[in-house]
Amino acid sequence: MLEKKLTPMSLEHVQIQDKFWKGYMELVRNHVIPYQWEALNDRIENAEPSYCIQNFRVAAGLQKGTFQGMVFQDSDVYKWLEAVAWSLMWHPDGELEKTADETIELIGKAQQPDGYLDTYYIINGLEKRFTNLMDNHELYCLGHMTEAAVAYYKTTGKRKFLDIAVGYANCVYEHLGTEEGKIPGYPGHEVAEMALCALYDITKDERHLKLAKYFIDQRGRQPLFFDEECRKNGNKCYWDDTYMKKQYYQAGKPVRDQDKAEGHAVRAVYLYTGMAEVASRTEDRGLFEACEKLWDNIVNRQMYVTGAIGATEHGEAFSFDYDLPNDTVYGETCAAIGLIFFARRMLEITKDGRYADVMERALYNGVISGMSLDGQKFFYVNPLEVVPEACEKDYNKRHVKPVRQKWFGCACCPPNVARLLSSLAGYAFEENEQELYVNLYTGGILDTVKNGKKNRLVIETEYPWKGRVKIRIENQEDTAFTLALRIPGWCQGYVLKVNGENAEKRPEKGYVLLERTWKNGDEISLDMDMPVQILEANPRVREDIGKVAVARGPVVYCLEEADNGDQLQEIYLKEEPEFKETYEPELLKGVVTIQAKGKRVSREGWEKESLYRTYTGKKFEDADLKFIPYYAWTNRTPGEMTVWVRV
């Protein structure tokens, strides 16, 4: 059975309180959301303008002007509104809600009588709408609007935004499809598929699930719609002149025939997430099997050690199996977020911890690396190796930045980070009537009803720096339910106790299942060994041969010039190094650093020599190495950085 077996805990029932994630969530609430609001209104000095709110004002007839910015600019405000919604759920804020309501009012004023809502076409000519579904992102904007509207309705109970989204979804339903008089099209940039499933869960309107399923089923069927659309409307597909062709859009063949992640990485994982959603609601075994094949291809052949995906700048895309260059990687922040979306849906269907392992890897590394520690600068691209001069002077690395940027003309990543972190509790804790799953370890208070009885769980932990987790049960009535504790894939040893007595249970698909009648005051302690681990890549990964990466718990580490000097390519780590772990509370908002003895290639004799010389063997000098968490790099002095180190 493919129905979802777990659902995210409502954010209003979770109070995240630990230093690590509460710090990020408060950063988003107090700094990122207000900062992004200023950016959406073009009030950030020396940052690229957004034009987002201005476009809505022009489309609503409130001011004169032309459409400006990216064709998908509407989506930035929708993602901001989703972040606001989740933030309001766990921290009510009257002023912020008022700003959101006013923004929704503005969006509603731009909506057309038949429900259509996309400022690019409202401003440039409605007669052109639905004429370039391949590239012009109308359905992408629908998707992000719908996700935001669902979140805002769940938080506030207000229907206005939800009704706007329903109006646009119904408009699309009336225009797209295989029925006579409709356009047999589907999104060029996926996201509407999963959004429509979320909308269906609220409206129970079969049209919304039917539209999501149609987008999945129609994609890639012959004759290819995008080819027909180009011929009919005179559009040009840039990607036809590349090896990707329509697979750039994951539209070169039916989705059930796809077993390798190809094309634009963000589009891909958004599509796969939608496929999992539709498969679970329609019991489509073939569609789910395609999801499993695509997942395995990504995780086992095309994912970076940080959880980043998308190896090439050309098309922000997957390239080919085991092609994982570190210095020209794209690794878009949005792609890592999309992988988390995909992981959670697969976890909800299977209750398999291997999906949570990837969710955790991407979250602690590939996602939060995309935002500075002060929440005011962002990475679009997340490299695993950087030489600042190369970023400036090597054309093939022009997309890689040695420092985070204030904002982007194409600003999909910052609001994406904000909405994910604001809704973090829903990824950490999931449940059903009889079970509570702890997917990610974060301290806080959870209120849950099991068998009609109220239970509170108080969780204490210093994760990810320490592997100890303590959970206390508080209830007024004894309650029978299963508490599922994830044992991460990186954990090679642990001690689990209930009320001080060893609970010798073997994990089932990555989770220890504690099934019992819980009493007030019961305590669970989980101590996970968290030694430094040395990771190596599959030998087929050419860029990482002879190199290792250092990790501790869920956190991947890197060497940074600020601690180790420049020319990091000269550094070698010993085969069996001794590591010293130190928590430094004043460094990078508090991190565990890792020190080790290493070697550095001697430059003796090279100063006066030519570029090449006869090889006489390597000479080394002793070097003291210091590793910091990858996510925190370039928050001090810009400089070189590398994740993979020679041995």
From TrEMBL:
Q: What is this protein called?
A: Glycoside hydrolase family 127 protein
Please list the coiled coil stretches: none
* PANTHER family from the UniProt entry: DUF1680 DOMAIN PROTEIN (AFU_ORTHOLOGUE AFUA_1G08910)
Q: Name one GO biological process term.
A: carbohydrate metabolic process
Cite a single GO MF annotation. hydrolase activity
Domain Non-reducing end beta-L-arabinofuranosidase-like GH127 middle intervals:
436-530
- Does this UniProt record's set of keywords contain Signal? no
Domain annotation Non-reducing end beta-L-arabinofuranosidase-like GH127 C-terminal: ranges: 532-646
Keyword set for this entry? Hydrolase
Q: Which residues form the Non-reducing end beta-L-arabinofuranosidase-like GH127 catalytic domain?
A: 13-425
- Signal peptide (UniProt feature, chain positions): none
